[in-house]
Please model this.
Amino acid sequence: MKISVLPMGEVEENVLKTLQCRLVKVFSGSTCKIMPKFTVPKECYNIVRQQYNSTLILRETLRLAELAEMLGSREDRALGVVDVDLYAEGLNFVFGEAQCPGKVAVISLYRLRPEFYGAPKNEGLLIERAVKEAVHELGHTFGLRHCLNPLCVMHFSLHIGMTDRKQAEFCISCNSLMDL
Ligand SMILES: [Zn+2]
Ligand SMILES: [Zn+2]
Model:
C-alpha cells in the first residue's frame, strides 16, 4: 500500500510523523508520505451542529488526492487528517470515515485528545488513538467491516474508552480477509 497523508488545517507535525512511522509498521511493506498542508473547506461546516460533515471532508480528500494524482495505482490510499469535530448523518460524532472498499479515508484528532474529556494533555495517548483510528479507517478501504472482537482494530468505537481498549492491529480473522 502507498499511503499519502493529507493534513487539512492545523495538525501537529509530530503527530503526523509518528503516525507515518506507525502506519508502515502495521501495514508492513507499505510506504507513507506526508503531503503539504491543505485547508479544511468551509462548505464542510454545519453551522447548526457546529461540526464538520465527515462525508464532505472525505469527498474533499478524494478530490485533492485525485488532483495531485496520488491515486493512480491499485495500492494507493489517501488519508485525510483533520483536527475539527466530525459528524456523519445519523450520528452525534465520528472519529473518522472511509470508503468501504475504496482508496480514501479520513480521521479527526479532535475527540482523540485527552483534554477533550477533561484529562491532562498527553501526546503519547493522542498518537496511540490516532494510529488506531487511522488503521481502522484504512482497514475499511480494503473492504473490512466492523469486527466483533473488542481488541481488534476493526471493532467499532462507540466512545473513546473502546478505542483505548482495542489494539492498533487486525485480529487474525480480519488480517486474513485483507487483500493487500
Ligand atoms: Zn468503522
Ligand atoms: Zn477483527
Observations:
- The chain has one domain: 2-177.
- The two ends are 7 Å apart (CA to CA).
